[in-house]
Specification:
The complex is a heterodimer of chains A (about 260) and B (about 230). Chain A has about 260 residues and is α/β, with parallel strands linked by helices. Helices cover about 40% and strands about 25% of the residues of chain A. Chain A is built from 10 helices and 10 strands. In chain A, the strands form 2 sheets. Chain A has a 6-stranded mixed sheet with strand order 6-7-8-3-9-10, sandwiched between helices. A 4-stranded antiparallel sheet of chain A has the order 2-1-4-5, with helices on one face. Chain B contains 8 helices and no strands. Chain B is flat and about 70 Å long. The N and C termini of chain B lie far apart (about 45 Å). In chain B, about 30% of the residues are buried. Classes of the chains: A alpha/beta (about 260), B mainly alpha (about 230).
Chain lengths: ~260, ~230
């Protein structure tokens, strides 16, 4: 049996009587890049937030490196710091500088001395190309810069897997590119990534596997080549044709500014 | 006019003694109010459901009845059930508990004005709820609360005046004595009004300075058009 980094078994989540995620199971291998696609309201973001327990699954199990993190008594704070989360709305800490945003988790959660944390934070900022902006506050940054700080903040905790919740949905096409470049670099470095996204171009280029969700379930999954060219499910075909015909520019052009 | 200044020079030392008491009462009440209001607001926002009725009851009582009634209950009423306070203690307790109720609501508003995404992000990097409140929510909420809190400070300077009704030797009390000794109500109370005005103006200025100093760069950018 190959050892998966993350294993999701029969995960269900409902809010009150409304089921949002229904019986979702999949494995995530180390260094794998998974892009989850699907219409709005099909439970993609909720699924992602269940993975690092920001939402508590109603039923089902999640294993991180063979440890069941959904078991009672598990220290959830300890789990979350091993899974980096990047938010659609960035959610940068407004009262802290760029450097402070990246360093605060290291000092307050990991207990690193401030000096070391700042040095490491600067390294992470270099990784996302923002070292020069370390002293600025979030309100002084562009959207794309904010999201790159968000990525650096998550990376700073040394996560085993990175979760991206529609990381470019709040950005205009020009700024989307700079965030996707950073994400592609991470993927190339071997980071395990699960990304909820509407960037079909990015999915095609960077994903090892695409998961199409519909009504809280996994409708279909597979390598991007197959999903995008020969989808097995009628519903997947329908979704992809709406996305690509209605939005041709975004689906093909956006993700590749750095590619030949 | 010269008569007024002559009287002012005579009366000021006495009035300033009272002013010191007024300032002590204001500071004490605000500190007690902070010690009650901040934890209470955290309970209101993050506390268990079970405790909410207790918080609401406290707020309802102290915000729903006149401060003067509260003062009389504490100073004249409680001794009947065997709990008696000195004048000063009664004044501190009443003003402090009253301010606590108002400050709780100011803090609650500020905490809730910090977006929910901030807590989500804090938890996302592995902070506990407590760490999220301490390192992420409160530093932002405390900045947001300053304008509302200035109101409480200004109001408290003036609210303290009612304690002369239980003969605490504050500014108002000294004024009352001076004006009846010298038959100079107009001069005395104009002087008193001026002193309160100076106090309030001075304190607002300080708070405004603090607010400016703590402002997060870029956040209050606003606009420079007309």
């Amino acid at each position: 049996m190959t050892r998966s980094l993350l294993r999701i078994e029969n995960l269900c989540k409902s809010f009150g009587a409304t089921p949002v995620v229904t019986d979702v199971s999949f494995d995530v291998n180390p260094s794998e890049v998974i892009v989850i696609i699907g219409s709005s309201g099909t439970g993609k973001s909720t699924l992602l937030q269940c993975l690092n327990l920001l939402h508590t699954p109603t039923s089902g199990k999640i294993f991180l490196e063979d440890q069941e993190i959904t078991a009672p008594g598990v220290n959830q704070d300890l789990v979350r710091r091993q899974m980096g989360m990047v938010f659609q709305e960035f959610n940068l800490f407004n009262h802290l500088t760029v450097l402070g945003n990246v360093a605060i988790g290291m000092t307050k959660v990991l207990g690193m001395p401030a000096k070391n944390a700042e040095k490491k934070a600067l390294n992470e900022l270099t990784r996302v190309g923002l070292a020069d902006h370390w002293h600025k506050y979030p309100a002084q940054l562009s959207g794309g810069q904010k999201q790159r700080v968000g990525i650096a903040r998550a990376l700073g905790m040394g996560p085993k897997v990175m979760l991206f919740d529609e990381p470019t949905s709040a950005l205009d096409p020009e700024l989307t590119g700079e965030v996707l470049v950073v994400m592609q670099k991470l993927a190339a470095e071997g980071m395990t990534m699960i990304i909820v996204s509407h960037e079909m171009g990015f999915a095609r280029d960077a994903a090892d596997r695409v998961i199409f969700m519909e009504n809280g379930r996994i409708e279909e999954q597979g390598p991007p080549d197959r999903i995008f060219t020969h989808p097995a499910s009628e519903r997947t075909r329908e979704f992809l044709s709406i996305i690509t015909t209605g939005n041709t520019d975004q689906a093909t052009g956006k993700a590749s500014p750095d590619r030949p | 006019m010269t008569e007024f200044f002559a009287y002012a020079v005579m009366a000021l030392p006495e009035l300033l003694q009272g002013t010191v008491v007024t300032l002590k009462l204001t500071a004490g009440a605000l500190v007690i109010g902070l010690a009650i209001g901040l934890p209470l607001s955290l309970l209101r926002v993050y506390g268990p459901k079970l405790i909410q009725p207790v918080c609401s009851a406290y707020l309802t009582v102290f915000r729903g009845t006149p401060l003067l009634v509260q003062l009389f209950v504490v100073y004249y009423g409680l001794p009947e059930i065997g709990v008696s306070f000195s004048r000063m203690a009664a004044a501190f307790i009443t003003l402090g508990c009253n301010s606590g109720a108002y400050q709780c609501e100011y803090f609650r508003g500020a905490i809730q004005a910090v977006s929910g995404g901030q807590m989500q992000a804090a938890r996302g990097i592995g902070m506990s709820r407590f760490q999220g409140i301490r390192h992420i929510i409160l530093p932002q909420a405390l900045r947001l609360v300053i304008p509302a809190w200035s109101n409480e400070l200004i109001a408290m300077v003036k609210y303290t005046a009612i304690v002369f009704l239980i003969a605490v030797p504050d500014l108002m009390n000294k004024a009352k004595i001076l004006s009846s000794q010298n038959f100079t109500p107009i001069q005395t109370y104009i002087l008193v009004a001026l002193i309160y005005l100076v106090l309030v103006g001075f304190l607002s200025l300080i708070l405004h300075g603090i607010q400016k100093k703590l402002a997060v760069p870029g956040l209050d950018a606003g606009m420079d058009g007309r």
